[in-house]
Amino acid sequence: MVEPIVVGVTDAPAALRAVEWATKRASAHRLPLKLIEVVGGAVGAIGEDEVLERAVAAARERVEATASALPRLGLKVYMRVDRGNPVAVLTDASAHASLLVIGSDHQDGSGGRRGAHGQRIAAGAQCPVVVVPDVDVSKRTGVVVGVDGSPASEKAIAFAAAEADRLGEPLIAVAVWTPLEAPRNMAAVYPAEYLENMEKLTAEALGLSLAGLSAQYPDLAIEHRVERGYPAQIINELASSARLAVVGSRGRGALARFLLGSVSQDVLSRLATVTAVVR
Asked: I need a labelling partner for 5 at 20 to 30 A (CA). Which of 24, 122, 126, 271 fits?
């Protein structure tokens, strides 16, 4: 069975952008699209059932309206309205999805920390997760991917390269190195040889991570970026002018699946563009 792209539906502007993004990708990959809206908040209060019934009816109308408004691209579209915890429902749905797409309440890349639900869903999901902010990225260029040589990074590179090729955008692969911690009054005494060697080693590792991409995607422009600093900060700076950012996350172990690495967590908490978390 072909696994669909699952997208979370709400009445938020970012959710509408998430549906649009997911629809375009589903069409490009000839995948079915599944729209899910979750009505939560039940606490057992008197009169709650009537409120929930109205909320479910409104959610069903919204999902149906969203589906009917989709471009006629020959897509198979499925709809589902559930009651429960949105994080739990969408996380469970990811087990049978090729990709999970959600909107974020994050408005821009100005630095405000929001989007806890998005982080929790990305941490628990069993497929790649794309978080879409309420930001117009149509005039931006490039797909940014963080590279650190890990298995998760390899999967992130594969995802980013395929998306960059599909979109006709350059792939901007960035590897970040951070010097050993030193007291502030010693920051100026890093030996030049040490700094040059760190830069060189990082560049070599980046080249190895990207080996073979040009043969796989002959028309793909690939930019190698080696930066000194903190990975999440550098990725977000580059993402602020990119159409898409891609980061790797931890694996699928019993505990690891419910944790985000510090880099992916920081990137999502200061969301600068449409961002994919790949594991």
From this structure: 271
Q: Do 1-103 and 139-279 agree at the fold level?
A: yes
Question: From residue 140, how far is each of 50, 81, 144, 148, 172 by CA, in Å?
Answer: 46, 34, 12, 25, 13
Cβ distance 279 to 179 under 8 Å? no
Tell me: the pLDDT tens digits for 180-224? Answer: 876 666 656 778 898 999 999 999 999 999 999 999 999 999 999
Tokens of 273: 């563009």
Partners of 176 in the β-ladder: 227
Domain 1-103 is in which class? alpha beta
Residue 120: which of 89, 144, 96, 97 has the closest Cα?
Answer: 89
With a CB cutoff of 8 Å and minimum separation 6, the contacts of 258 are 123, 124
Residue 116, both tokens: 């806890």
CB atoms within 10 A of CB 133: 25
What does each C-alpha distance from 163 to 31, 36, 124, 159, 246 come to in angstroms? 15, 24, 23, 6, 10
pLDDT band with cut points at 50, 70 and 90 for residue 258: very low
Residues 165-182: tens digit of each pLDDT: 999 999 999 999 988 876
Convert the pLDDT of each residue in 25-83 to its tens digit.
Answer: 999 999 999 999 999 865 555 557 788 888 899 899 999 989 888 887 788 999 999 99
The secondary structure of residue 46, as a DSSP letter, is T
Contact 260, 250 (CB under 8 A): yes
Q: Would you identify the CATH topology of the domain 139-279?
A: Rossmann fold (3.40.50)
